[in-house]
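Throughout our pipeline, every protein is held as a single compact record rather than as scattered files. Nothing more is needed to write down the fold, since each code stands for a local backbone conformation. The record that follows is passed on verbatim for readers who wish to inspect the format.
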Amino acid sequence: MLEWLLRQDVRLFFRINNQWQAGWLDALMPWVREPFIWAPLYLFLGLFVTINYKWRGFFWIVLFIVAFGIADQTSSFLKDTVGRLRPCRDPLLQHFVRVLVPYCPMSGSFTSNHAANHFALGTFCFLTLKTAFQRYVWLFYIWAAAIGFAQIYVGLHYPLDVAGGALLGIMIGLLSGSFFNVASGWKQN
């Protein structure tokens, strides 16, 4: 069963990385995954919660950073433990992988830190800001999914790496967001 799942994972990877290509995606996807592109969003969120929620906004920022840190360190631990090669490092596959960024990290592939980090932050924001953003709160998940997809598209991760990172991030986001809502007395619908 595991062998079959891994084969399907490689097939889906090559479909995304090789077949679903478009010039505009080749130009866009390397940027989508870069942290500095999202810095204005982080700045906006920090200002938004500080202006609107005063001291609880500071507590929100601290837990936002803590959720990121826990997701990042847990995903890094899993990479070292699992030891799956990235598609751009696998000697059997690397010659067929389109790597659209200037480097291929030496770290393992499972789980994707980008996916874990952004799904943790997206879930945290979803839980803590759903009253403020109402129907637009789902954009946090679209943001995280776009970053995860970009990791596959540029050739750095397999789909299961991103799915594993997403699940890890969602769990961490649920824990940190729920803790924040209870500890701060944050009122959500």
Remarks:
- The chain has a mean pLDDT of 93.
- Residues 35-100+110-184 form one domain.
- The longest helix spans residues 35-82.
- Residues 32 and 147 are 6 Å apart (CA to CA).
